[in-house]
Amino acid sequence: MKKETPMQRLATWRRAIALLVVVGFAAAACGGSDDSPTEAAQDDGFPLTFTNCDTEFTLDAPPERVMLMEAAAPSLLFAAGAMDRVIARIENFPEEYYTAEELALLNDIPALVAEHTSTGGVEISVEAIIDHNPDIVIGYDTATLTHDSLGDVGIQLYVMPPFCDNPPTPSFESILDEVRFYGELFGTSETANASADALEAAVASAADAPVAEGQTAAALYVSSDGSAIYAYSSLGMVHPLMEALGMTNVFAELSERVPEVSIEEVIGRNPEILVLLYDDFGLTPDEISALVTDLPGASSITAVEQGAVYPLLFNWAEPPTPLVVKGLSELSDQIAE
């Protein structure tokens, strides 16, 4: 399966840290800092058998050479205290999601030259992967990078669960479970469990004082050219994010994860809050807002009338990773202003 552009990923979604510092996540997650030396991997628990995309795999020892793809993936490695295992990356990691210290580490990781596909993903040859001799590649599968193609040369592919054909229902609990799994995978459970506890505390803190209690909301993705609108049902990670802040998702009942909708449908459901997910870094938040607020009839939506339109960077809400906990803080701060 090829990774899709955010618009296509939202339409089909087949594969689908400031607040963290406050609760102590950064200290637990950085792993390589002077204050938190990297936890030495232990072989306890190996061989480790796990299921990835409905297929069972077994690893005899913790991976020592990791290759990363997907912008949100590093947040899981930071949380597990395993970033020191990363020897190469296939994609760039937007600076908006990471601290200066984290970016310095990420930018020092060698980057593979990948070909961008017509759908906005990347494609790279198995030979280029082999040249770096990784134990494991973490991210998503593509036309050439599959469990079988990499397994044939002794490399494990771990597809992040949201990008599997049958992704699990997204939730904050699924994020905590994934962080803890990374602890098992890398033999760094002490660090990973501490990070998961801090993430859980951060979510609970936001949910205990919801800034949008009782308000209706819609989470939308609008294509960069404004030609299409997609609305999130209860199957997107942004749904539990909104629920944690007290909102009721007016599109929750839709059977698809993020179907295309018309502005008339949004007007008809008349949400009091609009959350606009985007990942076009060439547009300002105001320009993102205008993609919806300038549409014919949009001024009649209560959210638009009241100025309750909140652009939110895509990985603050999707897919389920520790970045979403920071997204919870980001959106909460916007609404509270």
Characteristics:
337 residues, alpha/beta, Rossmann fold, 2 domains, 6-stranded mixed beta sheet, 4-stranded parallel beta sheet, 14 helices, 14 strands, 36% helix, disordered N terminus
Describe this structure in words.
The chain has two domains: 200 residues, Nitrogenase molybdenum iron protein domain (Rossmann fold); 127 residues, Nitrogenase molybdenum iron protein domain (Rossmann fold, 3-Layer(aba) Sandwich). A hairpin with a 5-residue loop joins strand 5 and strand 6. The protein is built from 14 helices and 14 strands. The strands form four sheets. Strands 9, 10, 11, 12, 13 and 14 form a six-stranded mixed β-sheet that branches. A four-stranded parallel β-sheet has the order 4-3-7-8. The chain has a two-stranded antiparallel ribbon with strand order 1-2. It is globular. The protein has 337 residues and is α/β, with parallel strands linked by helices. Helix 4 crosses helix 8, helix 8 packs antiparallel against helix 9 and helix 10 packs across helix 14. The chain starts with 5 loop residues before the first helix and ends with a helix.
